[in-house]
Design a protein that fits this description.
Blueprint lengths: L10 E2 L11 H5 L1 E2 L13 E5 L3 H12 L4 E5 L3 H10 L2 E4 L2 H8 L3 E4 L6 H10 L3 E4 L10 H10 L4 E3 L7 H12 L5 E9 L2 H4 L19 H4 L1 H11 L4 E7 L11 E7 L5 E7 L6 E8 L2 E5 L6 E6 L2 E7 L4 H15 L4
Parallel strand pairs: 3-4, 3-6, 4-5, 6-7, 7-8, 9-12
Antiparallel strand pairs: 1-2, 9-13, 10-11, 11-12, 13-14, 15-16
Helix pairs in contact: 2-11, 5-6, 7-10
């Protein structure tokens, strides 16, 4: 029986200049490796639940992987019409009806977080594999049942934490797991961007990110960082968090958060998230016993690794648009492994 996987994987190349420094295996394990995946999903019937920006982006990526039969479902008829006109597809305003009539082989859940588990469970019960946009949910209720049903029906379930595919994080993961940086002492991560700039075509007040009732707030919407910290260091044994609204943005959720994680052997991690700062920021810094490894995901424009006073440069790892697309394609390629 194939269990649902929530792990995402990827690979990357390494410049010859770093081979003598022990980075070859790390970089080879971090490549996107998506070129040969073209048309891997050919013949699949994909139902996209939610026709917002992420639903349309996922649809474009699925096309690159060979999907030609699309169904779209959204209660907003304007957005639904846009997707229906852009893709050769069937359109539905009722999700249950869409599952029954379209009979998808795979479903992408791109709705607000409060609907994720319920819709994912319905998709699995209808016999479809399911790809769930992050976060998995706004609460723990229902998640265990979703996992059990996916296992029982041998359906593949995956959450879209595509930063696990970013080559810089793949390198860091390999370095941590291999012990090349020694015992991890601490990790510090930050992510921030001004909420009105996230989706400039939309009034930010109307986005799910701004509404508690839809599962918004920076802790859930910015959960990529929390996911990859736990992926790198494991499950923490201590968690403290301060999250609050400190800006004048018209939202009813936290716009800033400070999270501190404790691990055995006095290891520590800290995370800052906000949608207040006007400059897009995404960084991760890691310190190991006896050596430092510093990974800059946005600034500088190349990942910088420092070891015993020597600076080693990695491949360009800034978060440009095309890299987001390639990370998402890599996550779909991983999702396609159930075939």
């Amino acid at each position: 029986m194939r269990k649902p996987s929530f792990a995402l994987q990827a690979r990357s190349r390494l410049t010859s200049r770093q081979e003598s420094s022990g980075y070859t295996s790390a970089r080879k394990q971090a490549s996107y490796n998506t070129g040969h995946q073209k048309f891997r999903l050919f013949g699949q019937r994909a139902l996209i639940a939610g026709c917002g920006s992420i639903g349309r982006r996922h649809s474009n990526n699925l096309q690159l992987l060979g999907v030609r039969q699309f169904g779209f479902c959204d209660t907003d008829e304007t957005r639904l019409k846009q997707c229906h006109e852009e893709f050769v597809s069937e359109a539905f305003t009722d999700y249950r009806v869409a599952l029954e009539k379209f009979k998808p082989s795979l479903v992408l859940i791109c709705t607000p977080p409060v609907y994720h588990v319920e819709q994912a469970l319905a998709a699995v019960e209808a016999g479809a594999h399911v790809f769930i946009e992050k976060p998995l949910s706004h609460q723990a209720a229902g998640i265990r049942r979703l996992i059990q049903e996916a296992q029982l029906r041998e359906r593949h379930a995956q959450v879209g934490y595509n930063l696990r595919f970013h080559p810089g994080l793949r390198i860091l993961k390999k370095l941590v797991d291999s012990g090349r940086i020694g015992r991890v002492l601490w990790l510090s991560a930050e992510a921030g961007q001004y909420l009105p700039d996230w989706r400039p075509w939309q009034n930010y007040r109307e986005s799910y990110s701004a509404m508690r009732e839809l599962g918004g707030g920076i802790l859930l919407d910015g959960s990529h960082e929390m996911d990859y910290i736990c992926w790198l260091l494991g499950r923490p044994t201590e968690v403290t968090c301060r999250a609050e609204r400190i800006s004048d943005l018209e939202v009813d959720v936290e716009d800033s958060a400070w999270v501190h994680l404790g691990y055995p052997d006095r290891r520590r991690a800290q995370l800052h998230l906000d949608f207040v700062q006007r400059t897009y920021t995404r960084t991760c810094k890691n310190c190991g016993r006896g050596r430092d490894r510093i990974l800059g995901l946005l600034v500088p424009r190349r990942a910088m690794v420092f070891s015993e006073g020597e600076k080693l440069e990695g491949a360009p790892l800034c978060f440009r648009t095309e890299r987001h697309v390639r990370c998402r394609n890599a996550s779909f390629s991983r999702f396609a492994e159930w075939r």
